[in-house]
Write a structure and sequence with these properties.
By secondary structure, the chain is an alpha/beta fold. It has one domain (3-116). It contains 3 helices and 4 strands. Strands 2-3-1-4 form a 4-stranded parallel β-sheet, with helices on one face. The radius of gyration is 14 Å and the shape is globular.
């Protein structure tokens, strides 16, 4: 299988990283930031992961992205497939999605690395 690099990020911090696939989670999926109970948590907290993964469409998007990664990996050119997934601040949706995608791809035999570019940054007050 191939090597896959997953980078989660927040659009409010900087430009998206270069990637073969960029998944924008901002507009179609509810932001846990709006909940005062979740705002200062991150994807390292079970409550955030539960909220994000319980959002309709997220697990389908994880599966669709994994299918796209498989297509890139089956191409004639070898090399790492890079997936970048972003939300507003990079603390909730994007890193949770990245973790779920990494789990799915690892189970399928891919070698996966994951980096949360903005998860440790301060909450963006908006």
């Amino acid at each position: 299988m191939s090597t896959v690099e997953i980078v989660s990020f927040g659009y409010l911090h900087d430009a998206p990283p270069a990637a073969h696939l960029t998944i924008d989670l901002r507009h179609h999926f509810r932001d846990p930031h709006v909940s005062p109970d979740l705002r200062y948590m991150t994807a390292e907290d079970e409550a955030v992961r539960t909220a994000v993964l319980g959002t309709p469409g997220i697990t389908d998007l994880v599966e669709a992205t994994a299918t796209a990664v498989d297509a890139f990996a089956s191409g004639p050119s070898a090399g790492t497939v890079t997936v970048a997934d972003g939300c507003a601040g990079g603390r909730h949706r994007a890193p949770t999605f990245a973790l779920a995608l990494a789990e799915r791809l690892t189970a399928a035999g891919h070698r996966v690395s994951i980096r949360h570019r903005d998860m440790a940054r301060a909450v963006v007050e908006r």
